[in-house]
C-alpha cells in the first residue's frame, strides 16, 4: 500500500508498456537539483542493458494507481558465480605440502543496481518494497549473497540498505576516470603490447587471477562477449610470445594485462548543469590541442553532450616494473578509445591495488570511494572452512565485472 491507501504493485518490467514511464523516472532522478552539475545516463532505449549480459537477470517496476497507472520506481538485479576471496590449498598426487596451490572458492552472488524511486514518491516505502521483492527472486534462484554499489555520500541509499535491508559496508574500491584527449598519447617504446586470443586470455586469467575476490567463474562468457574489445598484455620489448602455456611456465620479469569493454554501445553519459565559463574553458583546451598537437595539452573532451566510454577490467600484473607496464597499457587503451570516439576511459580497482599507481586519471572525474555493501541472503549454508564472506577482510585486488559497470 502507498500513501492514503493507494496501491503500489511491484511486477516484472514490460518493455512495450513500461519503457516511457521508466525513462521518465530515470530522467527525474538523475538530472539533479537546478543549478547543480549532474551526470545523466542515456540507456539508449534498453533499461536492462547493464544486467542483460549476466547469466540470470531481472528488472522490476513499482506501479501506482488504479485507472491511470504510473511507474514510480524500478530496480534491477543479476546473479552470477564468483570467487568469494577465500582460498583452499590443494595438493597434486605427487606434491609436497609446501607446493600446494590455492584454488578458488566459488559462491553464487547477486548484484542489485539501478534502484530508482520518483522524487515525488519517496519516503513511502517503495524502495524497500522493490528491494524485498528482488531479494525474494534472488533467493529463489539460489543466490547466497547480495551486494550493491553506491556513492559513499549517497546517504539515502546507504540508510535504506544498511538500516532497513540488513546490508553491511563491505568494500570501498575506487573508480578512476581519465578523459580522452584530442591527441594520441605516446606509449613507452620499451614495452611491447600483444593482443591475446580469447583462449589465451581465459587461460591467463584462470591460472593467475581466479582466486581474486569477485572473479567470475564464467570469465569465458565475459571475454567472448561482443562488447569485449580484447585483452592486451604488456611485456618488455624483445620478449617472444609463444602462447599462454609457455608464458605461464616462463614469464618475463615484469608484465601487465588489461581487457577493454565497450560501454559506448550500451549507454551514453552527459554532464549537465555546468556553467558557461566551464564549458568555454573546456572548449578552449580542445581548440588549442587541435591547433598545437605537439604541446600534448591535456584537453577536456566534449562531456557536455552525450559521450561514450571504454571500461578497463581484469587489471593484473607482476614484477618490479608492472606499474610502468600498466601505465603503457592504459595509454594504449586511451588511443583505442580515441579511435572509437569515446570521451573517457574508466576502471574500478581496490583501494589497496598496487597497480592503481599505473592508472592515469583525473581526480575531478573520479570517485575515490565507491561503497559496496553486502548481505547474506540465508543462514542455512554450511560454512565449512570458508566462513561468512561478509565478515572477511579485503584483499589487495578485486575483480570488477564489466557487465555491471
Automatic annotation (TrEMBL):
PROSITE patterns: GNAT. Signal peptide: none annotated. SUPFAM superfamilies: Acyl-CoA N-acyltransferases (Nat). Keywords: Acyltransferase, Transferase. CDD domains: NAT_SF. Belongs to the acetyltransferase family. This is Acyl-CoA N-acyltransferases (NAT) superfamily protein. It comes from Quillaja saponaria.
Amino acid at each position: 500500500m502507498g500513501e492514503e491507501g493507494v496501491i503500489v504493485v511491484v511486477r516484472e518490467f514490460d518493455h512495450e508498456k513500461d519503457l516511457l514511464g521508466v525513462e521518465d523516472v530515470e530522467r527525474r532522478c538523475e538530472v539533479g537539483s537546478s543549478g547543480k552539475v549532474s551526470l545523466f545516463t542515456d540507456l539508449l532505449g534498453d533499461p536492462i542493458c547493464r544486467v542483460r549480459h549476466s547469466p540470470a537477470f531481472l528488472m522490476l517496476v513499482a506501479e501506482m494507481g488504479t485507472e491511470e497507472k504510473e511507474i514510480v520506481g524500478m530496480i534491477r538485479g543479476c546473479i552470477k558465480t564468483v570467487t568469494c576471496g577465500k582460498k583452499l590449498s590443494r595438493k597434486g598426487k605427487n606434491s609436497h605440502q609446501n607446493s600446494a596451490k590455492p584454488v578458488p572458492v566459488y559462491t553464487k552472488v547477486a548484484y542489485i543496481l539501478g534502484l530508482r524511486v520518483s522524487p515525488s514518491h519517496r519516503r513511502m516505502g517503495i524502495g524497500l518494497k522493490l528491494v524485498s521483492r528482488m531479494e525474494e527472486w534472488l533467493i529463489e534462484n539460489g543466490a547466497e549473497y547480495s551486494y550493491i554499489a553506491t556513492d559513499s555520500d549517497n546517504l539515502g541509499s546507504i540508510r535504506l540498505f544498511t538500516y532497513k535491508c540488513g546490508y553491511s559496508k563491505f568494500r570501498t574500491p575506487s573508480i578512476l576516470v581519465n578523459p580522452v584527449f584530442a591527441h594520441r598519447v605516446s606509449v613507452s617504446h620499451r614495452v611491447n603490447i600483444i593482443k591475446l586470443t580469447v583462449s589465451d586470455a581465459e587461460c591467463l586469467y584462470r591460472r593467475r587471477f581466479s582466486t581474486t575476490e569477485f572473479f567470475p567463474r564464467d570469465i569465458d562468457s565475459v571475454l567472448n562477449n561482443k562488447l569485449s574489445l580484447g585483452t592486451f598484455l604488456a611485456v618488455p620489448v624483445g620478449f617472444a610470445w609463444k602462447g599462454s602455456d609457455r608464458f605461464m611456465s616462463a614469464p618475463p620479469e615484469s608484465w601487465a594485462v588489461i581487457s577493454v569493454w565497450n560501454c559506448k554501445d550500451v549507454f551514453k553519459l552527459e554532464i549537465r548543469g555546468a556553467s558557461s565559463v566551464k564549458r568555454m574553458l573546456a572548449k578552449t583546451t580542445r581548440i588549442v590541442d587541435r591547433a598545437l598537437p605537439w604541446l600534448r595539452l591535456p584537453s577536456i573532451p566534449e562531456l557536455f553532450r552525450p559521450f561514450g566510454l571504454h571500461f578497463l577490467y581484469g587489471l593484473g600484473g607482476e614484477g618490479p616494473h608492472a606499474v610502468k607496464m600498466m601505465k603503457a597499457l592504459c595509454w594504449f587503451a586511451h588511443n583505442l578509445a580515441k579511435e572509437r570516439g569515446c570521451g573517457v576511459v574508466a576502471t574500478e580497482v581496490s583501494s589497496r591495488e598496487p597497480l592503481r599507481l599505473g592508472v592515469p586519471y583525473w581526480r575531478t572525474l573520479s570517485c575515490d570511494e565507491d561503497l559496496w555493501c553486502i548481505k547474506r541472503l540465508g543462514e542455512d549454508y554450511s560454512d565449512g572452512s570458508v566462513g561468512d564472506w561478509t565478515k572477511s577482510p579485503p584483499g589487495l585486488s578485486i575483480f570488477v565485472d564489466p557487465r555491471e559497470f
